[in-house]
Amino acid sequence: MTEREILTKKLSSYQFAIADMKLYLDTHPNDSETIKKIKEYSEKLKTMRKTYEEKYGPLTMNDISGNRWKWIKSPWPWETEEAD
Fold first, then answer.
1. Rounded Cα–Cα distance for residues 71 and 61 (Å)
2. Within a 13 Å sphere around the CA of 1, how many CA atoms are in the beta-carbon half?
3. How far is Cα 74 from Cα 58, in angstroms, rounded to an integer?
4. Distance from the Cα of residue 64 to its chain's centroid
5. 3-state SS string over the chain?
6. Among 61, 62, 81, 79, which Cα is nearest to 71's?
7. Contacts with 62 (C-beta within 8 Å, 6 or more apart), sequence order
8. What is the number of alpha carbons within 13 Å of residue 14 lying toward its C-beta?
9. Distance (Å, rounded) from C-alpha 23 to C-alpha 82?
């Protein structure tokens, strides 16, 4: 598995965990530990997204500031020659 794939899986894991904890808060709105974890995971996710975008380009079109078409200029996954 490439470094890019590992980072993508970590991003997905944090996004899922945050969404799941937010659903939990629907029935447990005063759970301060969960609120604390959401903030912690959100910071980690923000840092990982920044790392990913610096190395591989934006994840989505909305992640571009300034030139909204910049994301299309990045190599597509099948255009890179990363070794497994």
1. 6
2. 7
3. 8
4. 14
5. CCHHHHHHHHHHHHHHHHHHHHHHHHHCCCCHHHHHHHHHHHHHHHHHHHHHHHHHCCCCHHHCCCCCCHHHHCCCHHHCCCCC
6. 61
7. none
8. 18
9. 37
pTM for the whole structure: 0.72
Tokens of residue 60, six digits:
């989505």
Q: At what angle do helices 3-27 and 32-56 cross, to 10 degrees?
A: 160
Q: Cβ contacts of residue 14 below 8 Å, gap of 6+? A: 41, 44, 45, 48
Please give the pLDDT value at position 29: 95
pLDDT, tens only, 13-23: 999 999 999 99
Query: Residue 45 corresponds to which tokens in the numbers above?
Result: 């996710």
For the chain, which residues make up each domain, given as ranges?
3-76
